[in-house]
C-alpha cells in the first residue's frame, strides 16, 4: 500500500482534478469509513480480478494493444462486479451481521475489493447494473455491520477485567488511529494558533474512538453525540471503563450526549466532525450539512467524512459543490487501508 503523506494524498481545491489524475495514473486514488476499515482483509482469497492493461501485447499494432487493454479492463470490471453482487447477496441472506466467521469473511472480501480495484476498472464497475442496483443495500449492510462490530467491541472492552488491555486487542484500533491522525493533519492546516476550546463528533457510535482521538490529538474537550440510545449507553459504559487507562488526559474528559445531529447545539464548538454514516443518502447528507451550516458559528471548521470511487459503495459520497454555507478548504481521498475520504470546510 502506498504510504500516507500530506503532499501526495491531499487534494487542495485549486488542483484537485490534476492531482486526482496524477494519483489515478499511479493507481492510488481511493476513497471512503468513515472510518476504519470495518473488517480485516483475511486470507488471500480470489482477489478482485486481474489488473487492467495486462493484455497480450507482443508484436501487436498500437490500436490492437489499446483494444486488448480495454477488453481486459472490461473483463476485469465484469469479474469485480460479479464478485460484489455475489458478496452483497450473501451478506443479505445472513440472519445477523454480528462479528463471526461468515460476516468477517464476507465483509473482508468487500473491503479488499473496494480498496484494491484500480480506479479505471472501478469506474466501470460502478455503472454495472447489478452493482448500481445494490449500492443502497450494500451501504445499509455496511452501516449495520459496522454498528454491530462497534457494539460488540464496546461491550467486550467495557466488561473486561482489564479494559485498557482489551482495547489494545481491538483489531481495528490502528484504522481509527490512522484515520483520526490524517484528519488532524488536514485540520491543523486551517486551525488558528489557538487550541480549539471544544470539538463535537456527530454520530459517535457505541465505540467513541473518534471522539477520544480528537480529544487527545487536539488537547481539547470532546463531546460525542449519537441519536441511538443504545449506542449512547454503550459509549458511556466504554468511557467509564477506560477512564482509568486514559489517565488524566483530555481524552478522559470526553462526554457522550444523546441527541440528533440535526438538532444538537453547535455554537460552543470550534470543530465539528460529521461521521460518514450520518445521512446515508445524497439527499439526507445535503440536509444534514445544511442544518450544520445553520447552527455552526461563522469561521469554525467542519470535518466531514465522505467516500470516493468504489468505496462509495460502503459510505455516502459528499459532493463538495453542494456544501452551501461552507467554504471547502481541503478534500482528501486516502490511498491504502483508510476507507473514508475527508473534507475540511469553514462555516462562512
Ligand atoms: C456506526 S457509527 C460510528 C461512527 C463511524 N465510525 C463513522 O465514522 O461513521 C455511526 C453512528 O451514527 C449514528 N447516527 C446516524 N445518524 C445520526 C443522527 N442524525 N444524529 C446522531 N447520530 C446519528 C448512528 O446511531 C451510529 O451509532
TrEMBL record:
<feature type="compositionally biased region" description="Gly residues">
    <location>
        <begin position="44"/>
        <end position="58"/>
    </location>
</feature>
<dbReference type="InterPro" id="IPR029063">
    <property type="entry name" value="SAM-dependent_MTases_sf"/>
</dbReference>
<feature type="region of interest" description="Disordered">
    <location>
        <begin position="1"/>
        <end position="67"/>
    </location>
</feature>
<feature type="compositionally biased region" description="Basic and acidic residues">
    <location>
        <begin position="1"/>
        <end position="11"/>
    </location>
</feature>
<dbReference type="Pfam" id="PF03059">
    <property type="entry name" value="NAS"/>
</dbReference>
<dbReference type="InterPro" id="IPR004298">
    <property type="entry name" value="Nicotian_synth"/>
</dbReference>
<keyword id="KW-0949">S-adenosyl-L-methionine</keyword>
<keyword id="KW-0808">Transferase</keyword>
<protein>
    <submittedName>
        <fullName>Nicotianamine synthase</fullName>
    </submittedName>
</protein>
